[in-house]
Every structure is written in structure tokens, then in C-alpha cells.
Write a structure and sequence with these properties.
2 copies of one chain form a homodimer.
Chain A lengths: L2 H11 L2 H13 L4 E2 H8 L3 H13 L3 E6 L2 E6 L1 H15 L4 H7 L31
Antiparallel strand pairs in A: 1-3, 2-3
Chain B binds a DNA duplex (30 and 30 nucleotides) through helix 3 and helix 4.
Chain lengths: 133, 133
DNA sequence: TCAACTATTCATGAAGTCTTGAAACGTTGA
DNA sequence: TCAACGTTTCAAGACTTCATGAATAGTTGA
């Protein structure tokens, strides 16, 4: 990963609402959520959410897909993994103590917390199958 | 780790010069480097470097120690590990694909690259043994 | 005590980001 | 065709961060 992309991802993550947004979408899983649902859940105005969503999508941390009149957002796991890998490997050179600090197990996170609230579209509305530009 | 601390750390990391600074100090190891040496290595003005150093130290990513007329800076491995752990565990809930993306081995980083250029003080100048406020 | 050295702080202006509300755009169903 | 809906875009102002050079402060050795 280039440094410029890493900087874009770190800047995108350095904001409370956007961190909440990532957490929500990680919990939701690959199905993702439509923008309006995210706005209601996080209590954000439509325009503010749209601003945050596009910041995260431009940074490669989210994917979006237009479905009917909704736009469904989901985390881009590869993008999230890449920025963490950048910090761990490129930046910290796999420094043994850094690695030790962040690779401890977390038995306190129950498995069901990881993929809750899967989003289901109303019947009859299929996905378009391609990622939005 | 609280979200406010994570945000401070992410903001501090979202800057090219500061990422270079972390990389340099990770490579240098626990001995650290004095501010002037860092400024010369990275080609930064003294005031600009001081600004970046205090941003990183306030975010808990560096430690400093006054030694003779120098201030020696070194990475805070626990702090660096904590922000990576925050992203991986608290934010991404150990999402399997995210974890898979960032835990691949990196045999391309030679071991000697991790702790090069250890800094040695001129003889007779001992450390004060306490971290600067 | 004084000059040299190391590092930090301060003031200034430039540049960038954030928030808000209004307007615009495309989709859907009547 | 038209109104309702979901979402994005835009403009303006508030706020924050950044870069620069000058001033300040502490340490050392003569």
C-alpha cells in the first residue's frame, strides 16, 4: 500500500462519526445497510452522512451498490485490512512489542456480535451487481 | 482504549512527516534519537519537527527523555500496538477477512532492518531516568 | 558570566476540514 | 405525468490544522 493511500485512509478514520459508521457496518456484515438506515441509526443528517460515506468510500474502506432507490453501503474488508497491515508491517516493521500488543485474543467479543442485524431489501428488489463509481 | 484516544492517535498518524518519523524511530529501536538528529535525517525545520513530535507524544505514540542538552525520542510500542489493536478488535470486531488481510507474514523485511542505527550518547552523559511531561 | 548549542513556544497567515440547510437528481408507484 | 422518497451536491461560514521565522528557555564549557 502506498503511503498516500494510507494517509487518506487514516484521515478518513480520524473522525468519531466515521469510526461509528465503520463499527456499525462491520457488525452488519457483507449485506450492508442503505444510507437512510445508517443516518437514522447514528442520528446524522442526510448530507452529513453522505459526506462521511464518500470520504470513507474514496479512502477504500467502504463499498457501495445502488439497489432500487437505495444505496447500500458495506465495509471493504480488504481495504480495512490493508490499512491495519500498513501500520503493522510497513510502518512498525512488525516490531515484536507492537505485534504483541495488538495480537492478543479477545474472547470477550461474542461471535454473534460480529454479524448482527443483516439488512434485507424489500421483496422483489434485486441488486444491480456492480459497484457504484 | 477509549475512542477519544484512538481518534487522537489516528489524527496524529494521518500526516506524512509523522509517519516517516514513526518509521525512523521504529527502525532505531528503544535507544531512540535526539530531536536534532531526527530533524537532520528527515530534513525538517526544528520548529516543525517539534510540533510533530509533541503531536505524536500527546497521542501516546512516542516517549521522550531529557538527556544532557538533548531530548531523546523513541516509539512507545505499547501505544502503537494499542491503536492497531483498537482498529482490529474494537472497530473491526476481529472481522475474519480483515484479520486475514493484515496477518500475512512479511518475509521480505529482513530482521536487521528492524533495529538499525542504534543511537549512542557521547560518553559520560547518563539518562535522567524519567519521562518528560 | 558569556557564547554556543539544543529544543520549544509563539504569532501570523495560508490551507484544509466540518457542518448546515437548501437545491438538485434519479427512482418509484399512483 | 406527478408527488413522494432516498440520496447527493453545493455554497457559506465556522473551525482546525499547518508552515514559517523569530523569540525564548535551559544546558554546557570556557
Amino acid at each position: 500500500m502506498e503511503q498516500s493511500k494510507a494517509l487518506a485512509a487514516l484521515s478518513a478514520l480520524a473522525h468519531g462519526d466515521r469510526l461509528d459508521l465503520i463499527r456499525l457496518l462491520v457488525q452488519t456484515g457483507d449485506g450492508g445497510l442503505p444510507a437512510g438506515e445508517i443516518a437514522r441509526t447514528l442520528g446524522l443528517s442526510a448530507s452529513r452522512l453522505s459526506f462521511h460515506l464518500s470520504a470513507l468510500e474514496q479512502a477504500g474502506l467502504l463499498r457501495s451498490q445502488k439497489v432500487a432507490r437505495n444505496v447500500i453501503y458495506a465495509v471493504d474488508a480488504a481495504g480495512l485490512g490493508a490499512i491495519i497491515a500498513y501500520l503493522l508491517n510497513d510502518c512498525c516493521m512488525e516490531h515484536p512489542e507492537v505485534v504483541a500488543c495488538c495480537r492478543h485474543d479477545r474472547p470477550d467479543i461474542p461471535a454473534e456480535a460480529r454479524l448482527r442485524r443483516p439488512f434485507r431489501l424489500p421483496e422483489g428488489q434485486g441488486a444491480e451487481g456492480s459497484t457504484k463509481t
